[in-house]
Design a protein that fits this description.
Elements (H helix, E strand, L loop, with lengths): L5 E3 L8 E3 H27 L6 H22 L5 H22 L3 H21 L2
Antiparallel strand pairs: 1-2
Length: about 130
Amino acid sequence: MQTGSTKASIGGAVGKRRTSEMDDCMRNCLECAGVCFETIPQCLQAGGKHAAPDHIMMLINCARICSTSAEFLVSGSKQHVYTCGACAEICQECSDDCARTGSEDFMRRCAEVCKRCAESCRAMSAH
């Protein structure tokens, strides 16, 4: 295992190294995917604009791209810059959509987690 800002890739390809920044982004992506999936039934139960098909699809798509980005990061794939770039855009859109849709605790949490993931992925897409 290397010292400093890199460490062996847990579950990644042999010989690949991940930085601590990549690990942080991976955790943000996994948290965001989970929160988006948790938010869907809450939105459906709330009904109205919360249950609008476009909003539900945004949550699903955000969760999916976050899961994909996390998979690219954990594998140490250098193509993570592409998935993280897309993830940053979709997470930002989802954050904005959640903030517009409601002020309930679950909507604020989703908006905050998506925004944090967008910022993390934006930084990773530059590497």
